[in-house]
Task: structure prediction
Amino acid sequence: MSWQSQTLGEILERHARERPKAEALVTPKRRITYEELNLRARSAAATLHTLGLRRGDHVGILMGNDEKWLGLFYGAALIGAVTVPVNTRFKTAEIDFCLKQADCKALFYVPRFLNIDFDAMVRETGFGKAFDITRALPEWSIGDVTVSPQDTLTCCAMRGPPAHASASRPRIVTSTAVPFSMSRALRSRR
Result:
């Protein structure tokens, strides 16, 4: 049996085509099928593309792990953008550092999560391309986009080792969608 590299978007689209009514995500409030997740991802991809985001651009996501987060994650994968999950426990200075260190071109966030006022924190950072996802965002078409399984998929800011990382200066770790090349794919950036 040979394994063929696929992008995350290709995997989602295959599941949506082959098992559209199967559950892709179950939360305490919702059940999302692969077909619904694929539609959310394509909508998010169109929004990201309309906002000028392209393959290789880093896109921050600051919200709890729910269907909106997952739609943005897959949407970014569909256009080849790199997802930067921003830790919801970060303080304002850490959010600012993460966005700058990861070279984010945009940030998508919810105004409040777990009684934390992300809206105020994001405004305090002065980050220019921050989008509150509870407000209307533009949506058009993504056009022709080429994505490779070797493209960087995520870029995460983490506290802890190595010794250079601290609460105010988290380290940045990136990975690709290719699971069998993890030793090559994971690399730290300070």
Summary: Helices lie at 8-18, 34-50, 67-79, 92-101, 118-125, 182-185. The chain has one domain: 8-189. Residues 100 and 127 are 9 Å apart (CA to CA). The domain at 8-189 is CATH 3.40.50.12780 (Rossmann fold).
